[in-house]
Design goal:
The protein contains seven helices and four strands; from the N terminus they run E-H-H-E-E-H-H-H-H-H-E. The two termini are 14 Å apart. Helix 1 packs across helix 4, helix 1 packs across helix 7 and helix 4 runs antiparallel to helix 6. The protein is of the alpha+beta class. The chain has a single domain, classed as Cytochrome Bc1 Complex, Chain A, domain 1 (2-Layer Sandwich), CATH 3.30.830.10.
């Protein structure tokens, strides 16, 4: 079991940055779908999660091939690229996801409660409005470049691994 948290202060600076971060993580997951398929067949699991303060990479499975899967994820992260078609597809999916969160009273109530309790939190309404106003491909590229330059990493490795 390997878990790394790539933390960046950049994410919480604005609602736009949060939306750009969600877009980035979804595109990264989309890009990894085909190359990581063989790892999935070999019973290796991975998950990319857009956390509040950064990207959480979780990798789980047999230890002898786990570093190869983790390296694949890091390679795709460091050489991040996307096509305009993928960008449009992911932003449309995010619009639906955000909208579905907003129409459920219990998730909206939780979001409002957390907005009151947490300093510097951006509401789902702010994120949805930012996304509806439109994101540019250039803004995503600039965000990803800035994100990769301002990272702090925490990691945990459990299991049959040598140092």
């Amino acid at each position: 079991y390997v878990r790394f948290h790539l933390i960046s202060p950049l994410i919480q600076q604005s609602a736009e940055n949060i939306v750009l971060f969600d877009t980035f993580v979804n595109i990264l997951s989309h890009n990894l779908g085909e190359p990581a398929y063989e790892a999935d067949v070999a019973q290796l699991e991975y998950k990319l999660v857009a956390g509040e303060y950064g990207l959480v990479i979780r990798v789980k499975g047999f230890n002898h091939k786990l570093p190869l899967l983790f390296q694949l994820i890091i390679d795709y992260l460091s050489d991040f690229s996307f096509t305009p078609a993928v960008f449009e597809m992911i932003t449309e999916q995010l619009k639906k996801t955000y909208f579905n969160i907003l129409i459920k009273p219990e998730t909206l109530a939780k979001d409002v409660r957390l907005l009151i309790l947490e300093h510097g939190r951006w509401s789902m309404i702010d994120k949805y409005q930012t996304l509806m106003n439109g994101l540019s491909i250039e803004s995503l590229s600039n965000f990803v470049r800035a994100f990769k330059s301002q990272l702090f990493v925490e990691g945990l490795v459990q299991g049959n691994f040598t140092s």
